[in-house]
Amino acid sequence: MNIVKRLISAVLSAAVTISVLASVSYAEESTAIIPGFDPYTDKVWSEAVYMVNVDTGDVVFEKNAEKKMYPASTTKIMTAIIALESVFDWDKKVTIPYDCFNEFWSDDPNKNDPSNAAIEPLQENLTYKDCIYGLMLPSGCEAANILAYNICKGNMQAFFDKMNKKAKEIGCTGTNFSNAHGLHEDTNYTTAKDMFLIAQYAMNNPRFAEIVRTYEYNMPENEYNPDGYSIYSTVSLIKPTSIYYYEYAYGIKTGTTDQAGRCLVSGAKKQYNYMLVTLNAPFYNPEGEMYDEWYSMVDHINLYEWAFDNFAMKTIVEKNERIKEIPVVLGENADHVMVTPDRDFTALMPKVIDEKSVQKVITSYEELTAPIKRGDILGVMDVKFKGETIVTVNLVASKDVKRSEFDYYMGRVQKQFTEPWFIISIVCFFILLVCFIVTKTIDDRNRRKRRAQEKRRMSNYAKKR
Question: What are the backbone angles phi and psi of residue 255, rounded to the nearest 5°?
């Protein structure tokens, strides 16, 4: 029985490998690549899309980015991450039991005839390095199981748990993995945005980046390939003989099932570096006939060309830009100060842009009091593009403004006259003054009265004598 299974495996391996290599390589041309493509007016075939400028982190296009989708073999990106972070001796041999193949011979139609790397059960000369190349280039489902089996010592669920834990660590919120290869299970799902996060994380690993940029790899001999054999990447964007070859592309991974459609994660670098995830490009037209085009590849080429043609880095804010004059009181030979941004700001923007779509909203002091030092933060400026704030920069004084000591002390003196204690003192002074005047007036009157009375008394006394 094992011999029969191995023979069937070999035949299927050869057939699948030939079909993968031949399916898109030698057509004359693709009629779906559109010059001047615009995703907002032209058709994007994939159901979910997430495209990011890796240099800046800007999302330049998205479509159903957080919708639950099936990832198919793009699942293997996470499988590779766990393998790369778990294995340190890549020349170590792996164990290859039948347990790693049995599900592909089961009654589950979703698991039959999977993509493979032509690895044989019980093969003894395969290393971890061979296995991970077999995982990522021809999308070997048996390679995924072999890695999971060896890393977690036969406990496949433990490997899936590692995948899900890592997904959460990366920041995924809509992803769950229930196998290592991506063959369809309802519980194996993701989103376009999550898959971007996973791929971005993976590409930060130099070994992973090297693997997915590789088109061909030589595998060791086995029973059905006594002289060894070559495996090839399924990413037609990096295959020179493919009609979908794109000179700026690198990797990363395809995925294909009936439920997931055609999926593709790739990167492309020209003047800028982009990464793109597309999920569920269609197999079939409305009549049920298989499309000649691989619309996952079509979407990637169209979107990359659109991004490279339409976006560029532009300086939106210049450090020495004169923004606003703010009045200054008590300034020495200056009655205002100019504020400028504290830094330049450059952003990825459309090459052709309506000036009205960029607004600069300023919030600052209406008036200042000297002294002011150059670089003092006197306000902020929100830069908005199409109503959305893209950056907030500080506004700073462009020069020193010294205080006029004469004006300062004169101001202090003048201020004293408006202080409550001063006003109360003045009122009290005047009240006391009035009281003094009234009292003195009364005293003077009484004194004069007494003198008059004394004078009359003396006059009357003289007359009597």
Answer: -160, 140
Could you tell me the two tokens for 230? 């070559």
Amino acid, res. 455: K
Per-residue DSSP letters for 287-306? TSPBPSS-HHHHHHHHHHHH
For residues 86 and 102, is the Cβ–Cβ distance under 8 A? no
Position of tokens 């340190």? 88
> Cβ atoms within 10 A of the Cβ of 183, count?
24
- Is residue 237 predicted with pLDDT exceeding 70? yes
pTM: 0.80
Q: Is 45 exposed, middle or buried (0-12, 13-18, 19+ CB in 10 A)?
A: buried
Report the distance separating Cα 218 and Cα 235, nearest Å: 17
Q: Exposed, middle or buried, 65 (CB in 10 Å: 0-12/13-18/19+)?
A: buried
pLDDT tens digit string along 299-325?
Answer: 999 999 999 999 999 999 999 899 999
CB of 351 closer than 8 Å to CB of 311:
yes
Cα–Cα separations (whole angstroms), residue 219 to 8, 125, 143, 255:
20, 10, 12, 22
Distance of CA 13 to the CA centre of its chain: 40
63, two tokens = 């479509």
Q: Which of 43, 65, 61, 39 is nearest to 52 (CA)?
A: 61
- The predicted model gives 426-437 an average pLDDT of 82
b (16+ CB within 10 A) / e for 377-394: ebbebebebeeeebbebb
Helices first, then strands: H and E counts in the chain: 10, 15
pLDDT above 70 for 20? no
